[in-house]
Amino acid sequence: MDNGGVERIKQAMTDLCEPLYDCFARAGVAKIHLRPDESERDHVPDFSGREYKWLRTHYVRAHVHHDLSKRNVDPWRLSGNHRRNGELWLTDGELRARVLHGPSGDIPAAGRNLARRAFYRNVPLDPRQMQFGMQEPIFGPMNDRLLILWDLDAATGEPTLRVVRPIGPNLHGRRVPVDVDFVLPTTAEELSSMEFFPSDEEIHLNIPNEEEGNEFGAGGISG
């Protein structure tokens, strides 16, 4: 296992811990997630029901994109085309990250889109994992792409963020194969003190107070 590659990801993510958690926390307590007060129900739409989960998910992406556009998160910057179904993508010039909705700990499938499938094809940090049908991607190098998966607690709106590094699209209904997978701490200090313990089978991480997020809205490949 190339632990240097894991450390590179860890160091890069330290610049995003606080900004991302703050932006998602703000989005998670927005009124669109709540049933209007009784005095407002005649003129304020109620989007709190299950049928509007898709709308709340889109709103979270838009809210976070807007907040990040107003902040200095150097060396990271927004990328992609947010007008295209609310894409929420980031790059620091070396790593690229797609911020996707991952309710209940799920990793969104790449689907059939060739560009998306290419994005999932990083070169494995462990050469023994070259069993997933590696192919040259259509765009960019093969080893610089991450997924940042977000979820919001349905009761409190508190966010959980998870970083994964895919090494291939899901095959035949199986889970997306990854070789890095950890819950992003809420602070850069906590992430800096995290220790990575690679083993023969997978990467094990010492993550204090790890919590799993609950389902909050509908997912989508754009975020």
Characterization of this structure:
Helix content is 23%, strand content 18%. With 223 residues, it is of the alpha+beta class. The strands form 2 sheets. It has a 6-stranded mixed β-sheet. A two-stranded antiparallel sheet has the order 7-8. A hairpin with a 4-residue loop joins strand 2 and strand 3. It starts with a helix and ends in an 18-residue tail after the last strand. The C terminus is likely disordered.
Which value, in Å, is the CA radius of gyration? 18 Å
How are strands sequenced across the largest beta sheet?
A: 1-2-3-4-5-6
Secondary structure: helix percent: 10-25%
Q: What is the helix/strand order?
A: HHHEEEHEEEHEE
Number of strands: 8
The stretches of 5 or more residues where confidence is low (pLDDT under 50) are: 199-221
Query: On the 0-100 scale, what is the average pLDDT?
Result: 82
Largest sheet: 6 strands, mixed
Q: Helix- and strand-based class?
A: alpha+beta
Approximately what portion of the residues adopt beta-strand conformation? Answer: 15-25%
Present the secondary structure layout.
Layout: H1 3-13, H2 17-28, H3 53-69, E1 77-79, E2 89-91, E3 96-101, H4 114-119, E4 145-152, E5 159-166, E6 178-183, H5 188-192, E7 196-198, E8 203-205
Parallel strand pairs: 3-4
Antiparallel strand pairs: 1-2, 2-3, 4-5, 5-6, 7-8
Helix pairs in contact: 2-3
In short:
This protein is α+β, with helices and mostly antiparallel strands.
Index terms:
two-stranded antiparallel ribbon, 5 helices, six-stranded mixed sheet, 223 residues
